[in-house]
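Lay summary

Proteins are chains of building blocks that fold into shapes. Our project writes down both the chain and a compact code for its shape. Here are two examples, one after the other.
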Amino acid sequence: MARAPLLQLSDVSLTFGGDPVFDDLSLVVQPGDRVALVGRNGSGKSTLLRVMAGLVEPDRGSRVVPPGLSVGYMEQDPTMEGFATLGDFASAALDPAEAWRVEAVAEGLKVQLDQDPSLASGGERRRAALARLMAEAPDLMLLDEPTNHMDIQAIRWLEHELSQTRAGFVMISHDRAFLSALTRATLWIDRGQVRRQERGFARFEEWRDKVWEEEDQQRHKMDRRIKAEARWAVEGISARRKRNQGRVRALQDLRAERAAMIRRQGTAAMALEDGPKSGKKVIEAEGLAKSYDGTPIVTGFDLTVHRGDRVAFVGPNGVGKTTLIKMLLGEVDPDAGWVKHGTNLSVAVFDQARAQLDPDMTLWDSLTGDPSMRVSGQADQIMVRGQPKHVVGYLKEFLFDERQARAPVRSLSGGEKARLLLAKLMARESNLLVLDEPTNDLDIETLDLLQDILGDYAGTVLLVSHDRDFIDRVATTTVAMEGDGRATFYAGGWTDYQAQRGAEAAPEAAAKPKPKAGKAAPARKAQPGLSFTEKHRLEALPGEIDRLEAEIAKLEQLLADPDLFTREPVKFRKATEALEDRQGKLSAAEDEWLHLADKAESADGAAGPR
């Protein structure tokens, strides 16, 4: 017997401020569904989740939840007025005999149930809302950014719990690893349209790119048809005017249809300008020690950061990652030890608290009022990487529209605040970039762009993040802060750290010395002649080479169009530049693979028969 759907929306339309968010939207959530809800910041993901929860009434259409089934919603900014503690809020809907449910979930999510909500951070309040939802155990869970401000240990606990649940869930998240591990279907909001694919988030980008490619082909065909019809109208209509008025009207309809096509929102025009080259040694620290209230942050911590390094700091919330970064920058004094900075440093900081943003200032004033961006005598101009630029034009590069320029910062979503902070940070030159939780609230497309920019950045990066995929893509070294003042170094990103940590814990590795806490341990050799990082690189290069070859083939196919230069000169220039870039990277990757393969083969030969 077929089971009833958990939730059904039929012909839903919703308009905010004159612009339609959804029109004629219909969707069904079935029992056991595990759905990723994805889309650009501002596309309406949270609004759709609130419609599904019954908290926003659509202008038209219906929402149906069968009798006896329950729907639970975890919002990003829960309201907790009237509750003395986070525990009171989390258990408000439960019978007192079931309060143990909240305690069990709170332990995994690291929620302090006795904390006053008015003193709790946004992340702590959000975890309390998540604890409430999971303790209530509804048939359908609607989760809005559940992993934001959550450390990796809590994220992995939540990932395990959700993988075991029998409830259905729909969730918004920017965490690729989390979404890929849990979801089996994807809802994609794009320009007011909601599409569904019966595949999890791991296949989303492949699907999205295919949809966009088909759209581009359709636009191209329609443009060619309009061009041909318009030429006929000019050259042939005068002799047959009465007989061919229908064809003229058809041309007008074609043009109207083409105009109605909603163009995709572009990605933010983010860029990092390298400042003057720093010294070879960027930061050198020795014997650092720091404690708060008797709890050690680090003890005997040594670190040397060289120009171009990408160092990620990972560990549970509260372990002291941000404090350690501030010690390395000279903003916090250590209890013992010393920090020395290299020459010619120009530092840019993205802080997780968004302290550089005044919520009562407008976006305009937030930029023009920054002394480092001010242009003397020009109230509407700001200095962007050494060049004056109109403030609204620069905001548009980060996907803000003209109306938002005079709006207060407090009116922005979390993702928009992150983009505004990136706009301030990227307006100046730098050679040392400090990113403290940059991924919170950013949509996946913006994260992709940020990763690409960091890949081309010639300076040095210090990163604090709980996003495993982002760490893997960016970091060359990972510093794991494990509590009690211990900090251990690992070559590579999160996956490398887990692999090395697992090898250290393996029985056959028990007799081998572990990296000394607080010391930069050399990468262990996975095989004679190759370091761990080199072996990992040798294994990864074939996939990178395949990807570059595929990108080159696609660009060459695009440039094979003889009319591209005259029709779309900007696109032609960008494609040509991209082709040259990919060809250079392919040549470098092939040379690197040959070098490492020869090194591995020589090492095997030197080792002799086994």
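And here is the second example, written the same way.
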Amino acid sequence: MYGYPNTDRISLNPLQGMNSLRSRLLLIAAAIALSVFALFPRATAVRERQPDGSFVETTKRLWPLKYGLDLQGGMHLALEIDESKGAVADKKDALNLALKTVRNRIDQFGVSEPTVQLAGDDRIIVELPGIDDQQRAQDVVQKSAFLQFQITDETNALEKSLPRMDAAVRSQRLDGAASAPTANAAKPSAAAPLSGLLTGDTTRKVAVDSGKAAGTETAARVAAADTAVKKDANGPVTKLVQPGQFPGQYFVKETDVARMTRYLADSVVRAAVAPGKVIRFDADTLVGAPGQGAYRAMYVLDSKPIITGDYLTDAKPNNNPLEGGYIVEFEFNAEGGRIFRRETGRHIRDNMAVVLDDRVMTAPTINSAIGRNGQITLGGAGLQEAQDLALVLRAGKLPVPLKVADMRSIGASLGQDSIDKGALAFGIAIALVIAIMIGYYRFSGMIACVALALYIFFTLAALAGFGATLTLPGIAGLVLGVGIAVDANVLIFERIREEMDRGKSARLSIEEGFKHALSAIVDTSVATILSGAVLYQYGTGPVRGFAVTLVVGVAASLFTAIFVTRTLLLLWLDRTGGTKPLSI
């Protein structure tokens, strides 16, 4: 008693001890209440897939802790800059700009807890939990979304360019495969009209400015044979082209589209096209009459667009049965509206092609000047295609083209299997720890198990509160945290036991045990937190998930081991008056 006068003097003040104990209990109760609030299921806006493949917004009550890609399945994509069409000077800057665009698209994609981040200096990593449509995910992150409005040619530029293009193809020896007719396609003729070619409802419309101007593009009967190109009918390019229904529009058999694309990909052939003109294909295929096969429209356009999608402020999908299906409504900003109105006013009765990523979506006739609002009709496309097109238009175009360097799909069944195995490992770890602690430390071990339960509760609540995503490595970090939390209690109990072996009272042994064990606990915890911080800073994906769970777990173990365990021991001392020996 005389060797520890300060400690005994403090313990003899019952009012001060009670106030301290009450404050401790209130703090623990507050932490439990906050944890319950953080983990309580709440209404969450989610996107659900419909039977037709589209997504609708809905609200569900969900547990706030999200599962990562490895637990609920999904898509993993690694994107790199595509330099096949030209070198990129500053790759790092271009990749950073592309990262922002991809992140904007993914944020609007409706994925729960996506990951979009740089990996090294040359890759963007995209992880989409819960997404199993590979092609759709790839299209959303890869589309350039370069929207242009271009006027179709009115000067018969293609007819004038065909002899030069034919000569260029021959000089480049690109027509070797064209000399022999294929078994699947009849020999095309440039003089053959498209009279009676197109069947069914192939009408597509674009309505603008609340319907004040509407242009109708109808795949109807076209000009007679005497209006066709009267050049070298056997020219490698000429024989693939058939006249369209208005100036600047032509048709190419679907079986010949690949050949024509190969010709146009050659720089010499492109140079033979009239200056100031570009050639673009339609995004859709038109079905011909029985026995005539499918055709694709080809357009000769002014190379300089009257306006681009840079002025777009909004785009949203809609359904308009009068327009033949789903549409995407768009809106320009004030400056874009002025430019669009001025330029369309100059081209009354001309056709204007809406070009997205070098594909013509539609080419209506301009009947009057157009203002800020318009719409793109998608023909037979579904709601999902309309949603995705609106998404990429809102998010903006990519500064550089991207290619998919790596793509992996993780099935939901694999994720559920990982959850089951992780839960089993976690349960086994908890059961062994409880058995060892109670078997070895008896009553004190029971107190440690209560603190351990609170540690798990606080850790999960902190992860949910920070908006963290639980991954399989995160579960491993949680299991590891259980060992760290117990280790702190072991250090404390061993020091308490040493003090009791020296003949000190239970109250004094508890005080001295916590005092002497504190430095070792703090040192090891700080070292672990620093290691986790390094892993988080330089790691990616699953490594970061492990680091977050580990750091949060260590912080929670410090609180439960030093504060909760000590409070429970003080509560036992208060109830027993310090007269009973501590079972340890």
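What can we say about the second shape? The longest helix spans residues 542-576.
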